[in-house]
Amino acid sequence: MNNWIISGASVLGGEPADIFVRDGVIADSAPDSAQRLDATGLIALPGLVDLHTHLREPGREDAETVETGSRAAALGGYTAVCAMANTDPVADTAGVVEQVWRLGKDAGLVDVQPIGAVTVGLAGERLAELGAMATSAARVRVFSDDGHCVHDPVLMRRALEYVKAFDGVIAQHAEEPRLTVGAQMNEGDTSARLGLAGWPAVAEEAIIARDVLLAGHVNSRLHICHVSTAGSVELIRWAKSKGWRVTAEVTPHHLLLTDDLVEGYDPVFR
Amino acid sequence: MIEHLLSSSDLDLETATLVLDTAAEMAAVSGREVKKLPTLRGRTVVNLFYEDSTRTRISFEAAAKRLSADVINFAAKGSSVSKGESLKDTALTLQAMGADAVVIRHPASGAPHRLAGWIDGSVVNAGDGTHEHPTQALLDAYTMRSRLGRLEGLRVALVGDVLHSRVARSNVWLLRTLGAEVTLVAPPTLLPVGVDSWPVQVSYDLDSVLPKLDVVMMLRVQRERMNASFFPSVREYSRRYGLDAARMGALPEHAIVMHPGPMIRGMEISPEVADSTRSTIVEQVANGVSVRMAVLYLMLGGMA
Ligand SMILES: [Zn+2]
């Protein structure tokens, strides 16, 4: 039996109301023989989607598994998570993405949608078999070398073009690698005072500027991972104003924390 | 009747049809015991080849000789050209030699156009860079017409490396003129930016296109394109865009399989498809001579 009356929840943050569930689907009237759940004081939202998770399986099951990640997601209100490709082995073949997808099915808590690597081994040199991943059981549509930037502009262009064949999207970890060699924290007054090697905003913004132009030129879909500078936001806003198909995400710590916290040299705040 | 043949878009419907009809007459000659016509006796045709292409050069040479023209083969390799002589200086030499027609194959797009401005004789583009190869398109159209009886309304797919293919460009313009409907099928990386403005349909999905075709033409895909990330691997390319026996089975009963050659078996086409009765690959070679005879005849024949 999967009939519920969820009572008293503030729906999408609005007035409290009852939510009816018949056979696991939201209904417009109270189902027969329903279980009642008192949700007074709680907020009801649709299932959330996390576009950027690292489930670490295969390879680092000591840190996280598809199952533990699924549990955490479900507890937090997420009904779907995208699993980044920097596993060991890397999710750069149909075999690995299907493995992750099956582990998600077996855990059975949320939709686990594997992200495929753009390049073989995340090495940024050769395209991975994106088409094979797209037509696999995992039906991969998002491809990312997250953790590494696809820094070669020709390779990035080809990747953006290639995924148009199956309406895919390239999710870029925007970091010009030559500008961040040895970098430890945001480059600015604080890094100068602390004597720590700086990570300049331009390292992120230069790649975003290049990639939104590429996406516009070849009319493909680009997603920017973990945007962290005001300049990046301006660039993305500009690209969207052109009608280019660009999306972006942001993390809580990039929104809420500042580099002053590094004053105590606690590496947690880098 | 035809001054130069630089692009298949130089040909209107009437002229293109005349070339194909003339080629049919030339094919009849090629079937005779004595394969020669005296039509171009005393005229000089120069084959000026800056790229190795034995098959195309031999085809033009056979065509000119069957029309009794004098043929000079001017291979760029080992000649003054490889010692740095410019195309313009070579053109002036050919002009001084009294070439009536120059058949040029060149790695740079536009070389035949430049040549046509420097000499009095006619210029035939036998393939320039990634631009055009109009006699290939004519022989392809001739082959389609002789197998299927018409060109108007034929549904033709060109599959493979359109971006780098001069054969694809020439076929697009000529088939359009002749009333066929063209679909280009390729991974997006191997289609030129701006293809939306061409008079064609575009698809990334070969399987969805096959059941609706009269003709599928497989274009050559060089392995080296893989190194420049145009596609991930030979395996993925042939799985998505190669024509194998299973895919051939999805074609309508009457549909034919073409390839301009040289083909790479196991890449864009499987051996059983290349050798099947639907394949016109050998006919295309034979038809090449007839079509090139027709082009040279219509260029030079009327002025003897
Ligand atoms: Zn990242």
Task: Tell me what you see in this structure.
The complex is a heterodimer of chains A (270) and B (304). Helix content of chain A is 30%, strand content 21%. With 270 residues, chain A is of the alpha/beta class. Chain A folds into 3 domains: 1-45, no CATH class; 46-139; 149-270, Metal-dependent hydrolases (TIM Barrel, Alpha-Beta Barrel), CATH 3.20.20. In chain A, helix 4 (153-162) crosses helix 6. The radius of gyration of chain A is 21 Å and the shape is globular. With 304 residues, chain B is α/β, with parallel strands linked by helices. Chain B contains 11 helices and 9 strands. The two termini of chain B are 13 Å apart. Chain A binds chain B through residues 120, 126-132, 154-155, 158-159, 161-162, 164-166, 217-218, 220, and chain B through 187-189, 193, 204-205, 228-233, 235-236, 239-240. Bound molecules: zinc ion. Zinc ion (ZN) is lined by residues 146-147, 173, 225-226 of chain A. Chain B: Residues 152-299 form the Aspartate/ornithine carbamoyltransferase Asp/Orn-binding domain.
